[in-house]
Amino acid sequence: MSADISNEPCPCGGGLFTRCCQPILREHSKAQTAEQLMRARYTSFCKQDLDFLLKSYLTTKPKETIITNFNKMFRERSWVRLEIQECVDGLASDQTGIVQFLAVYTTHDDPETEQWAHERSSFTKEEDGCWYFRSSERPT
Ligand SMILES: [Zn+2]
Cα–Cα 20 to 30 A to 22, which of 2, 10, 32, 124? Predict the structure, then answer.
């Protein structure tokens, strides 16, 4: 069974899914900016696309820990919306970028209460020409 998703809005709020994050989830190199990769990673959480979350993340943390954390978020959270608050660099001509965002979610235990992840994320463009998520901190 396959549903027609051509009119499906992208979870990140950037337009049609087929024209927004879907091409990037299929082909990582299509993220031209840090913001596009950030949006695609948010959409990956909504779609529970573990592969994309892992391949777009450069970290020294143990892979098992990361997978456990992502799976926990998949189980517990229902994502409501993404608000991009600030981008510093991260354009196609840059090598580094910062994206500050608010990702709003509810939990299955408490679906009436909106909670959020408020983060300032760092991205780098590597030699393969792809943007990668590196780390996050709380905005000051
Ligand atoms: Zn999108």
Answer: 124
What is the whole-number distance in angstroms between the Cα of residue 108 and the centre of ligand 1?
23
Ligand 1 centroid to residue 98 C-alpha, Å: 18
pTM: 0.94
Is the domain spanning 22-137 CATH 3.10.450.50? The answer is yes
For β-strands 110-125 and 131-137, DSSP reports them as antiparallel
Nearby residues for ligand 1 (ion, Cβ within 5 Å): 10, 12, 14, 20-21, 39
Q: Give distance in angstroms: CA of 22 to centre of ligand 1.
A: 7
CA of 52 to the centre of ligand 1 (A): 14
Q: What is the pLDDT of residue 87?
A: 98
Q: CA-to-CA distance for 81 and 105, rounded, in angstroms?
A: 7
Q: Are 65 and 41 in contact (CB under 8 A)?
A: no
Give, rounded to a whole angstrom, the gap between the first and last alpha carbons of the chain: 47
Mean pLDDT over 85-108 rounds to: 98
Question: Ligand 1 centroid to 126 CA: how many Å?
Answer: 22
